[in-house]
Amino acid sequence: MFITLFTLLLSILFIMWSSVRLKWHPALALFLASLLYGLGSSISFAEALAALQKGFGQLMASVGLLVLLGCMLGQQLAQSGAIQVLAQKLIALGGKKNPQWGIALAGILVGIPVFCDAAFVVLHRLNPALARQSGKDPVLLQLSLAFGLYLSHTFLIPTPGPLAIAGTLGITAFDTFFGLALLFVFPVLLLCLFLLSRLYNSSPVEKEPVEQQVLPQIPLWRALLPLLFPILLIALSSIVRFAFGESPWLVLGSPVLAIASGVLLARLWLPQPKKTAWVSKSVAQAGPILIITAMGGAFGSVIAASGLGAELSEMVPIQDSFWALCWAAYFIALLLKSAQGSSTSAMIVTASLLLGIMPSEGLSQVPLSLLALSIGAGALAVSHTNDSYFWVVSRMGRIPLPKMFKSWSLLGLGISFSIMLLITVFTALWV
Predict the structure, then answer these.
(1) What value does the mean pLDDT take over residues 407-416?
(2) Which pLDDT value is given to residue 319?
(3) I need a labelling partner for 213 at 20 to 30 A (CA). Which of 54, 138, 186, 331 fits?
(4) Which of these, 284, 285, 301, 287, lies nearest to 30 by C-alpha position?
(5) What is the largest CA-CA distance in the chain?
(6) Would you say the C-alpha torsion 183, 196, 82, 121 has a positive or negative sign?
(7) Distance in angstroms (rounded) separating the CA atoms of residues 183 and 271
(8) CB of 104 within 8 A of CB of 144?
């Protein structure tokens, strides 16, 4: 067992070294790490190769359509201008006195179907005019938007990272996962906005012309329907199952059909300036995520095939140390995120690693969801100069680097730790 654990440690270090120092694609790093672990584990190399292929296929089968459909929905919302409409309406809820509340809520909602980088590029242009109208510091508004988008990016399905974790860990109750995520995200978002308001309450706004945003003429209900309808379908399916038991009609609330319905509604109800561009862009966006996700599944499958999880669970019973497993998941994701910069990659690698070392039976959907959220909390920090989103927020939001390190990197670490504390308390009380 000692040799197997040592090989696993070498494999993880190899992933970090090849991604950070050699700048290799995470998929290649995961593939070679899987082979490295297979060579040093207790199973034969032929068995390791078979497990690698099996894990790759299983992950692609479980989340492939979900990720692709989620990207399609996000592309249509972005191209039609629906996300700008949603943002403006939510900003109005905060009013002129506290516009940061509205822009943060817009970030949470828009960040569900649209990648945080792309959404920030589109929505950050609303903030200069908003800052002038309210007298608030533009940095406050830009960071409020950035954190709202980032929390969705790391916690809320069908964003690809959380979706990949769910597929890897075997989470099928998406409504439970989504509900628990909201339970932890909103209190921490309130804390974040409070701290940002104390740091950047008001300041003179530059007297430069503000670009006027021309919003598309889309009713609010049309902009909301493709996004909320899939969530309502999944929730309704769970309510019906709980009240009446199993039924053939419950298939209509399956995640694939639910998100597909959102894509269809967006196609029918929203203006589409380009007929086919959204399809090709969606495929190009989903492809790299799917390859990394499936390769992460291959890595986890090889670890699971070696029997390491069974040996570890005998030494430390999972029922007596679930909180420790959550904290281990948190620190692994935090280390990977801080080292190589990508939250999505950090989440996928961490979930794959846990898949190989935790028991295949014994965890219900609530503990699995809490474990997935622990991974998301770790992948939230620490965002610094090796993170592409760090530079998007800094450059597009016109935020100097000293402020980014103080208000983005350090505050992000604090938010990450706060979410983990909430998860620990919830675990102690209910699991």
Answers:
(1) 90
(2) 47
(3) 186
(4) 301
(5) 69
(6) negative
(7) 34
(8) yes
Domain presence at residue 309: yes
What is the rounded CA–CA span in Å between residue 256 and residue 61?
Answer: 11
Establish if 299 belongs to a structural domain: yes
Identify the sign of the CA torsion 240, 242, 245, 247: positive
Reading the block at residue 355, the tokens are 């898949």
Cβ partners under 8 Å of residue 188, min gap 6: 151, 415, 418, 419, 422
Total structural domains in the chain? Answer: 1
Average pLDDT over residues 179-184: 91
Structure tokens at 54: 């099996």
pLDDT tens-digit readout, 294-348: 887 788 788 778 876 666 655 555 545 788 888 988 998 898 888 777 788 788 8
DSSP state, residue 156 = S
Cα 239 to Cα 329: distance, rounded to the nearest angstrom: 31
Q: Residue 360: exposed, middle, or buried by beta-carbon count in 10 A (0-12, 13-18, 19+)?
A: exposed
Contact 114, 78 (CB under 8 A): yes
Residue 290 pLDDT grade (very low, low, confident, very high; cuts 50, 70, 90):
confident
Q: What is the mean pLDDT of the chain?
A: 81
pLDDT at 344: 82
- DSSP state letters, 252-302: GGSHHHHHHHHHHHHHHHS--SSSSHHHHHHHHHHHHHHHHHHHHHHHHHH
* Residue 312 is assigned to a structural domain of this protein: yes
Which structure tokens are listed for 88?
């403006």
Cα(281)–Cα(226) distance, integer angstroms: 19
The closest of 427, 324, 314, 383 to 154, measured between CA atoms, is: 383
Q: Between the CA of residue 143 and those of 109, 138, 182, 369, 393, what are the distances in Å?
A: 16, 9, 20, 28, 8
The answer to whether 210 touches 132, Cβ cutoff 8 Å, is yes
Angle between helix 138-155 and 160-169 (nearest 10):
20
- Tell me how long the chain is: 431
**pLDDT at position 210 over 70:** no
Burial 290-315 (b: 16+ CB within 10 A, else e): bbbbbbbbbbbbbbbbbebbeebbee
- pLDDT bucket at 359, cuts 50 / 70 / 90: low
Contact 187/423 with Cβ under 8 angstroms? Answer: no
Residue-number span of the structural domain to which 110 is assigned: 56-430
- pTM, two decimals, is 0.78
| 327 within domain boundaries | yes
